Amino acid sequence: MEPEQRKEKRLAEEAPVWEKFWAWLGTLEPLGGSKLEKAVNYAWNHKETLCSYMLDGRCELSNNAAERRAKSYAIGRKNSLFHTSVPGAEASALVYSIIETAKANKLNVFQYLYMVLLYMPEHKGDPAAVETLLPWSEFIKEHCMGLIDVETITPENKPPLPT
User: Which long-range contacts (CB under 8 A, 24 or more apart) does 71-76 make?
Assistant: First the structure.
């Protein structure tokens, strides 16, 4: 759905569920110091933020997707303990960033890296060409969203870079 449609549907279908939840929560009388009391207090203290996803159709209900993306950075951070130089650590950070940006743009990561490495040597001084090789460019989306195609796109037989 488009974000505005998603927002309208959430307000129509989910707002009444939240209203019932808050009404039910108001009827609870948990014992002081119990885990239930902590949970009830947490819910009341975060009522506004718990429901904020309904105000913008672009927002997700949970942050699970962001957590999954952050996991690879956490693994990379642990791997960074074994770098023996600052340039090596910087190179790893750059590669992680490129890979995660390709994933965020729904690209085939291997194909994207292949295309960047195929074109960069002869275009690295050309800002327009570098712009064309960014993960959100139409050229890259056209060539890197499907299956791996390293047999037909070779250094000798590559399509021209539209700059």
Answer: 72/96, 72/99, 72/100, 73/100
8 Å CB contact between 46 and 97:
no
Average pLDDT for 1-30: 95
Residue with the two structure tokens 């490129």: 98
Half-sphere exposure of 151 (CA within 13 A, CB side): 2
For 141-148, which contacts have Cβ atoms below 8 Å and span 24 or more sequence positions? 141/105, 141/107, 143/111, 143/115, 144/102, 144/107, 144/108, 144/111, 144/112, 144/115, 145/106, 145/107, 145/108, 146/108, 146/111, 147/108, 147/111, 148/108, 148/110, 148/111, 148/114
Are 75 and 26 in contact by the 8 Å Cβ rule? The answer is no
Tens of pLDDT along 72-94? 767 766 677 777 888 888 888 88
For the stretch 111-125, pLDDT in tens is: 999 999 999 888 888
